[in-house]
Design a protein that fits this description.
With 334 residues, this protein is of the alpha+beta class. It is 39% helix and 19% strand. The strands form two sheets. Strands 1-4-5-9-8-7-6 form a seven-stranded mixed beta sheet, sandwiched between helices. Helix 5 packs across helix 10. The longest helix is centred in the N-terminal third of the chain and has 32 residues. The termini are far apart. Bound molecules: 3,4-dihydroxyphenylalanine. 3,4-dihydroxyphenylalanine binds next to strand 8 and strand 9.
């Protein structure tokens, strides 16, 4: 063997001391401890020594290997931290401002709607999104095979279970549990098999229900007029247009004067000057019967609106899908 292990060790320590940077340390680690390095080769050649010398030589060589490993680590640390002290810390630089989260525009509008009704004395209720046919249709006076079921583009889980197509099932769930008077709104997600500029398979509705003695269509008009004035502004005119829903009689859809053209006619209102914002009506006696309310004693009104639709009108957004693409540049505007 050309070099003794002690010679290799001394040479390595000298080289490491003289190294000027981390790159050189890495080179030296290969020269001494690499697969063909000096210490490695020395260890491999121990088998050629006379048998009595082998144990002692092996032990010493392993000690040297360990010691060098430590010396390399120390040197790396020394040279590494020397380099980083060159980068001065400028404490006068402004900090990184963390991106601040915000509520989704649909959540904001949903809260605004709920706040208005809470101020008018309504409670808030919630119910399941996976719903029985009974609550979504049957109890709301949609008999099986009734053509009005077609309007709803239902997602079926099974013959008897659907993804709720509207929040109206909450009317039934609430009245089943509670005797009149009832004054409640029910916000939540609803599902329909439909997708285009103004429809997404999931969207949000807020349902309203008020039942008591002597409730009239005049009360319905008063509450919804107050709502529209608070949601949009006091100048927003509205009209009640006769319509049909199986669970209300009479039924009315509420239109507001077009927020874009103020009635003169534009693309958004299809030149009609009006925009539909919600459905409503007086609770049908058949619905009261289904929940065990006495329809000779009680009357009530109900209404339902799409949250995205209100948000689109309020913010002038023409494609509902924007709400669900999660493009931060869009969401950050609200
Ligand atoms: N559930 C209806 C829909 O999704 C909206 C609706 C209309 C709700 C009239 C009501 C109502 O409570 O009275 O199309």
């Amino acid at each position: 063997m050309e070099q003794t292990i002690e010679e290799i060790y001394e040479e390595a320590v000298r080289d490491i001391d003289a190294a000027a940077d981390e790159g050189r340390i890495q080179e030296l680690a290969v020269i001494y401890l690499g697969r063909k390095g000096k210490v490695t080769r020395y260890l491999r050649n121990i088998s050629q020594l006379p048998a009595q010398q082998r144990p002692e030589a092996g032990k010493r060589a392993n000690q040297v290997k360990q010691a060098l490993n430590q010396t390399f680590r120390d040197a790396e640390e020394r040279l590494g931290s020397a380099a980083s002290t060159d980068e001065r810390l400028d404490v006068s630089l402004p900090g990184r401002i963390p991106a601040r989260g915000r509520l989704h525009p649909v959540t904001q509008i949903n809260q605004e709607i709920c706040d208005i009704f809470v101020r008018l004395g309504f409670d808030i209720a919630e119910g399941p999104e996976v719903e029985k046919d009974w609550y979504n249709f049957e109890a709301l006076n949609f008999p099986k095979e009734h053509p009005a079921r077609d309007m709803q583009d239902t997602f079926f889980i099974s013959d008897d279970i659907v993804l709720r197509t509207h929040t109206s099932p909450l009317q039934i769930r609430i009245m089943e549990k509670q005797a009149p008077p009832v004054r409640v709104i029910a916000p939540g997600k609803v599902y329909r098999c439909d997708s285009d500029l103004t429809h997404t398979p999931m969207f949000h509705q807020v349902e309203g229900l008020l039942v008591d003695r002597n409730v009239t269509f005049g009360n319905l008009k008063g509450i919804l007029t107050t709502f529209v004035h608070q949601m949009f502004d006091e100048q927003t005119s509205l009209r009640f247009r006769p319509s049909f829903f199986p669970f209300t009689e009479p039924s009315a859809e509420v239109d507001i004067l077009c927020v874009m053209c103020r009635g003169s006619g534009c693309r958004v209102c299809s030149s009609t000057g009006w925009l539909e914002v919600l459905g409503s009506g007086m609770v049908h006696p058949a619905v009261f019967e289904n929940v065990g309310y006495d329809s000779t004693q009680y009357t009530g009104f109900a209404f339902g609106m799409g949250v995205e639709r209100i948000a689109m009108l309020k913010y002038g957004i023409d494609d509902i899908r924007r709400f669900f693409e999660n493009d931060y540049r869009f969401l950050a505007q609200f």
